[in-house]
Amino acid sequence: MIYLQLFWAYLKIGLFGFGGGYALLSLIQYEVVEKYQWLSLSEFTDIVAISQMTPGPIGINSATYIGYTVTGNVFGSLIATFAVCLPSFILVLIIAKTYQKFRSNSSVENAFKGLRPATVGLIAAAALLLMTPTNFIDYKSFILFGVAFLLLWFKKIHPILLIVLAGVSGLVLY
Predict the structure, then answer these.
(1) What interhelical angle do 159-173 and 139-155 show, nearest 10?
(2) Is the CB of residue 23 less than 8 Å from the CB of residue 9?
C-alpha cells in the first residue's frame, strides 16, 4: 500500500509542480510531512539540503531520497522518481508535437508569460515553508551566504569549490 501511496503522491507532485524543483518543495512538503506524515519537518529539511548538494534536479533527488527513506529500499526510490518524472515526460512529448503548430499563437505566448509569476510565488512559498524556528537563518549563515555569493559573482570561483568551502566553514563555525 505504501508504494501505491508513494506513487500517487509523487505523480500529483510531478503533474502540478510548475517552475522546477524549488517550486515543487511546497507540494512535496505538504504530501510527505503534512498529509502522509512519512517524515518530520526536520527530516524533510535535511533531505532538501542533501538534495541541493547532490548533482541533478532537486525534485528528482528529493523523490529518490524520500522514496528510500519511506520504504527502506531502492524500489521505493524508483517508484517515487518514476512517478515524479512521468507527467513531465508525457507533457513534453505532447507539447513537442503541438508546439511547432501553435508557436506564434498569442494565447500560447500569454500562457507562458502567466506561468512566470506563479513560479516565483511557488519558490517563495518553498522558502517560507523551510524557514521554521529550528531552521531560521542566523547571522553566521547569512555572512557565509554573502561571502559565497560575492566570491561567485566577482571572483568567478567554481560552485563546487564554493560548496566545499562553505561546508568546511560550516564545520568550523558550528
Answers:
(1) 160
(2) no
CB 154 within 8 A of CB 165: no
Beta carbons of 24 and 87 less than 8 angstroms apart: no
pLDDT bracket for residue 136 (50, 70, 90) = low
Q: What is the pTM (predicted TM-score) of this model? A: 0.58
Q: What are the extents of the domains in the chain?
A: 2-134, 137-174
Helix (H/G/I), strand (E/B), else coil: 31: helix
List alpha helices for the chain, DSSP H.
2-16, 21-29, 41-53, 58-71, 74-102, 106-130, 139-155, 159-173
Whether the pLDDT of residue 99 is over 80: the answer is no
8 Å CB contact between 43 and 69: yes
